[in-house]
Specification:
584 residues, alpha/beta, six-stranded antiparallel sheet, binds flavin-adenine dinucleotide
């Protein structure tokens, strides 16, 4: 029998941005919250201190801050006729682990998605007709509009001190910003990042081509900043150690230096580390979640934590797996198109161009995770798709994130004199620009439980079936050609473009933007949660984060993850706490 603890008001399964935002907002309203986090505690001023945090081998290559795949991983196959095999080392995506989750080692590119994204189905049909939607493509409206999310985007940007330049203030276009963005009520809380030399070239080239460049929004602080909760952050030094690292300057907004200290200061929040949740427990009616069961990874004990409200905040794979192993909802079957949990799994596609520019000293060692100049002209439905044979698009950017020596090895060899020669020849002359491209849902791309492989706790591994289908390669090819055009205009020689390859590979790193599986919507027959990420049938269970996104856009997801989470927190505090039950 597991040890049973006294009940609390709310439990968060996972303590990253989503668990942290909810903990801060709920505890301030007097709600007691326990955060169960499978990874270790991470204190920014100890764990991210200079010089040890700049160990590229430990953190950048050996993934020191990320999920331990010897305990839990997922299996992967491109299609249902293949046998899925376990991912035995991290590759395509780098999953968070420990207090702060992936928010400790993210880049900080913090976007609002386009209004089209939230109404993608109805806007597509209105402009192009039903026939424009590929066979087997499952795009659907989110049941939520950009306008409804706008105040919560603003709230996340203020909490995280985002630096940028507004392009549309209350419907009025602003010079220097993104003219395609949805209307904003106010300017970013901080000015944009400094522009790199590569950024200068991109700015001029794309402007000359008639596009609309602007500085990418950044959670790397552009000046010292104190957020509305009183949390202070330092200014970014452009050291180039953002993605895969904690920030030793305290200059990258993360849950650890924003929402978590805010929650802890209330005295109503407890984080329990090394606590791996293995199950959500239901009452006999099946309509109410009563507790979660976790394994204390230090003692090996099985412990039950009852709570009035249960929030799954364990990122896409964690959330979907917990629903499935707990028997909550029917698992999606792509053959019959029945079942919902695991449906609409999407990723982030990419396209780009590379070449060489000689005679310049780009100082590529310097940079910041979100330093970029971007164009949004070919994202969403900002351009006419008639006759193109694909929907949506992507954002194109020149980014200077800092070229660290091991990861940025430009040669064919990873060590020795071959590496040195290649590095000397190409480190400062090989240049690239790239596009983050939307990933739309297809019937075959889904998550379910693996029939063969199990984690160390005895649960089946999550199984991913994913490949590029329908119009996906056309979209990336189109964006690759624009990348080539811009890079050539920037003065590069030997320019080569790339879209996605024939098949998705789980081996090389691409991005940790994995969405879907427990998607939101108004109709319970095609969504797991309502647009507040509240379970349709179990009103005290909330499945929070990118698992709820019905598709992925041409921008990074965390701005939208923050916005939907603040919207949920607002509804809990203002309505649910007084009158528990369905929020809509
Ligand atoms: C290298 C990298 C770079 C990125 N850069 C960007 C960027 O520039 N812009 C952007 O928008 N996004 C970026 N992202 C994505 C961003 O980090 C995530 O969108 C965001 O952190 C998600 O927050 P979350 O709270 O949903 O999940 P997470 O941050 O993943 O937190 C979930 C937590 O749950 C815990 N957990 C999981 N399962 C269990 C369980 N069973 N029991 C207990 N605990 C559990 C995990 O250990 C983790 O700490 C990046 C991600 C990575 C890895």
């Amino acid at each position: 029998m597991p040890k049973k603890l006294p009940s609390v008001d709310a439990v968060m399964v996972g303590v990253g941005w989503t668990g942290g935002i909810l903990a801060a907002e709920l505890t301030r309203a007097g709600v007691s919250v326990v955060g169960l986090e499978r990874g270790p505690s991470r204190e920014a001023n100890v764990d991210f201190a200079f010089p040890h945090i700049r160990d590229e081998l430990k953190y950048g290559i050996r993934f020191g801050l990320m999920q331990d795949v010897s305990r839990d991983t997922l299996t992967f196959r491109n299609s249902a006729d293949q046998m899925a095999l376990p991912m035995r080392q991290l590759g395509s995506f780098l999953l968070g682990n420990g207090t702060g989750g992936a928010g400790t080692h993210w880049n900080g590119q913090t976007w609002r998605w386009t209004p089209y994204d939230f109404e993608i189905y109805s806007q597509t049909v209105k402009r192009y007709g039903q026939a424009a939607i590929d066979d087997g493509m499952l795009i659907q409206d989110w049941g939520l509009t950009y306008q409804e999310l706008e105040p919560f985007y603003d709230k996340f940007e203020r909490t995280a001190g985002i630096g940028g330049k507004a392009g549309n203030l209350q419907g009025k276009l602003q010079p220097g910003g993104n003219p395609f963005e949805g209307p904003r009520q106010s300017e970013y809380p901080n000015p944009p990042m400094k522009r790199s030399q590569l950024g200068d070239l991109f700015q001029n080239a794309s402007q000359n081509l008639g596009y609309h460049p602007f500085p990418g929004p950044s959670a790397n602080m552009t000046q010292a900043y104190t957020n509305p909760d009183g949390q202070s952050l330092g200014a970014c030094m452009y050291c180039g150690f953002c993605e895969r690292f904690g920030c030793d300057y305290n200059a990258k907004a993360s849950p650890n230096n924003t929402v978590l200290p805010t929650a802890l200061a209330t005295g109503k929040f407890e984080v329990r580390n090394n606590a791996n949740v293995v199950r959500v427990n239901m009452d006999s009616s099946g309509k109410r979640a009563v507790s979660v069961t976790y394994i204390d990874l230090i003692s090996g004990e099985e412990i039950e934590q009852p709570a009035e409200m249960i929030f799954l905040t364990s990122f896409t794979f964690g959330n979907v797996k917990l629903l499935m192993v707990s028997g909550i909802g029917d698992i999606y079957d792509p053959v019959t198109n029945k079942g919902i949990v695991g449906r609409n799994y999407t990723y982030q596609l990419s396209a780009g161009a590379g070449g060489t520019i000689t005679g310049k000293d780009f100082k590529v060692f310097a940079g910041a995770g979100a330093e970029s100049v971007v164009i949004d002209d070919f994202n969403g439905d900002h351009f006419d798709h008639t006759g193109l044979g694909f929907l949506h698009g992507g954002s194109i950017s020149a980014s200077s994130a800092g070229a660290r020596p091991i990861q940025s090895n430009p040669g064919g060899s990873a060590w020795g004199s071959a590496w040195k020669n290649a590095a000397a020849a190409a480190y400062n002359t090989s240049v690239g620009i790239g596009a983050q491209v939307a990933s739309l849902p297809f019937r075959e791309n889904h998550l379910d439980l693996d029939p063969t492989y199990r984690d160390v706790y005895g649960n089946p591994l999550l199984r991913m079936t994913f490949d590029y289908r329908g119009n996906e390669s056309k979209r990336t090819q189109y964006l690759a050609e624009i990348n080539v055009k811009i890079l050539t205009k920037m003065g590069a020689k030997n320019v080569v473009g790339r879209g996605v390859p024939d098949h998705y590979s789980i081996v090389p790193y691409q991005s940790t933007h994995t969405q879907g599986g427990a998607i939101m919507g108004l109709d319970p027959s095609s969504s797991v949660v309502n647009p507040y990420m509240q379970h349709h049938q179990i009103s005290n269970l909330f499945v929070v984060g990118a698992s709820s996104f019905p598709h992925n856009s041409g921008f990074n997801p965390t701005g939208t993850v923050g916005a939907v989470t603040y919207r949920l927190a607002d509804a809990i505090v203002k309505r649910y706490v007084k009158s528990p039950g369905p929020l809509m």
